[in-house]
Amino acid sequence: MYNGIINVYKEKDFTSHDVVAVLRGILGQKKIGHTGTLDPQAVGVLPVCLGKATKVADLLTDKDKTYKTRFKLGEETDTQDHTGEVIDRKPYAVDETMILETIQSFVGDSEQLPPMYSAIKIGGRKLYDVARSGQTIERKKRRITIHDIYDISINLPFIEMTVHCKKGTYIRTLCRDISEALGTCGHMVELERTASGIFTKESALTLDDIKNLAQENRLAEAIIQVDALFKDYQRLIIGTHYNHMLYNGNKMPFEAIMNIDTVKLMDKTYYNVYNDEGDYMGIYEWLSPKNLLMPVKFFCIRY
């Protein structure tokens, strides 16, 4: 079984689940999961976790994202993107300065109303299922953070921009909201995720790329090991005498740490933990009041 992460470039007309299904066929294993849904018409970076690495999928989903998008002023659709039905048309009277200033006003913390065509669940039902049945459910606004909006290109009625944001930001809703702030309406036309955490478009592989590597017995080249994703975490080495506790995912006492002289332990801080032979065991959290290392994500791939 393969353990690690593949940086997949999702192509148009594939759902995120389609990507997982194709990879299961290529790799010959079931334990695979993606780290953040991309709509079928969207393209771009989709990190996929394999084997024991599926345990860190939630940590990767939490990472910041970067998107390149293109939207059109003057037309609103029921899905907020080009796949929906046009439900409104409005004229617009804008200039470059107005557009740039309005777009930059969205940088920072704000609240955003999730679109009906989304995978969010309310009352056990996914919003897009409700929307497809012609219904609307009351939604609460969610806190979002946009770090930066740059590479803005204006060719009216189209506007292109790159958005660096925290997870949970709906780019098509952002496009609609910017359009409304400009005194008109609008909808998203194109979306590409160019980065998710440390994963970038430049290093991403298409499904065909991965299939070719598999046929050449070179899949290992595409798989990133889990500890490489968390290089910011300090490295702790556990002594041989504590292997039984370590291999069973137990909490580890202070005395078990071999390299204590080379690290700084800080309360409620994550660390990469290894056995004394260099095998990666998982992510642990140091709790100063208890003088213990507590397992957060335990792998023990070797045992």
Automatic annotation (TrEMBL):
Q: Name one Pfam family in it.
A: TruB_C_2
Q: Please provide, alphabetically and separated by semicolons, the GO molecular function terms listed in this UniProt record.
A: RNA binding; tRNA pseudouridine(55) synthase activity
Q: Which residues form the tRNA pseudouridylate synthase B C-terminal domain?
A: 172-229
Q: Which reaction does it catalyse?
A: uridine(55) in tRNA = pseudouridine(55) in tRNA
| Catalytic-site annotation from UniProt | D39 (nucleophile)
- Top-level class of the enzyme under EC nomenclature: isomerase
Query: GO terms for biological process?
Result: mRNA pseudouridine synthesis; tRNA pseudouridine synthesis
EC code(s) of this entry: 5.4.99.25
Alphabetical keyword list = Isomerase, tRNA processing
Domain (Pseudouridine synthase II N-terminal): residue spans on this chain: 24-171
- NCBIfam families to which the protein is assigned, alphabetical: TruB
The protein's job, in short, is: Responsible for synthesis of pseudouridine from uracil-55 in the psi GC loop of transfer RNAs.
> What PANTHER family does the record point to?
PSEUDOURIDYLATE SYNTHASE TRUB1, TRNA-PSEUDOURIDINE SYNTHASE
Protein family membership: Belongs to the pseudouridine synthase TruB family. Type 1 subfamily.
Q: Could you tell me what this protein is called?
A: tRNA pseudouridine synthase B
- Source species, please? Petrocella atlantisensis
